[in-house]
Hints:
It is a single chain. By secondary structure, the chain is mostly helical. It has one domain. Helix 1 runs parallel beside helix 10, helix 3 packs parallel to helix 10 and helix 5 packs parallel to helix 7. The protein is globular and about 55 Å long. The relative contact order is 0.21.
Amino acid sequence: MTIFEAVIFGVVQGLTEFLPVSSSGHLVLLHEFFGTTIHNLSFDVMLHLATLLAVVVYFKKDIIHVVDVFKRMMMRQDVLHRERNLIVALVIGTIPAGLLGALFASTIEGAFRSTISVSIALIMGSILFVVAEKVSKRNKEITGKRGFFVGCFQALALIPGISRSGSTISGGLILGFTRDDAVRFSFLLSIPIILGAGIVEVFLGDNAFVFNVPIIIGACAAFISGLWAIHFLVKFLKGHTLMPFVWYRVVLALLLIFIF
């Protein structure tokens, strides 16, 4: 892998990991463009760590608060009802994608990795976004039960083309979360999933983990672009809907179908 390829793949991975446009669809385009089937265990793991670091850096205050609340719960100290619900929702919400990912991730990815299947998933995900925007008129608090169902939406993102951030934000809106709660819960819920994906790749990989200049530069590109993508999406969705991403995804799906 050249430095140029590492930067391009890193930037695209960082952006599309968090923007609701599907990293899988864009990686299919990149592979077609470069005429490669680049898959490097060390590079994949470093990209996961870089995007994980971007979430941790951006939401560091929220993470510190969640950890503090969890510690107080373990020590049987009083915590606010809303704070307790958030902890429970995050724990329970991780189960669907974590369990299905551990058992069937490779099978699902292999079955839905073709250009046509990614295109269909892009369109189906777009329909989910539209539905979410149509019904997002209630302001319900985050609870363990609702967190679990958002986790089920997150599990849909195991299918390449759906988008993890898009499905979880949509799930939050459908379940009545405020836009701000839906976005923040989506990103906090992504932390164990991104970490888990990196761990799985390490243990299931056949190659030794190595560092080199392209890998390090690619990871830096993924971190910077990922941090920007999180900042942009959080600010953008405060006053806008998911509809611009719907149109983008439809165009991308058509490109995949008719060009590649």
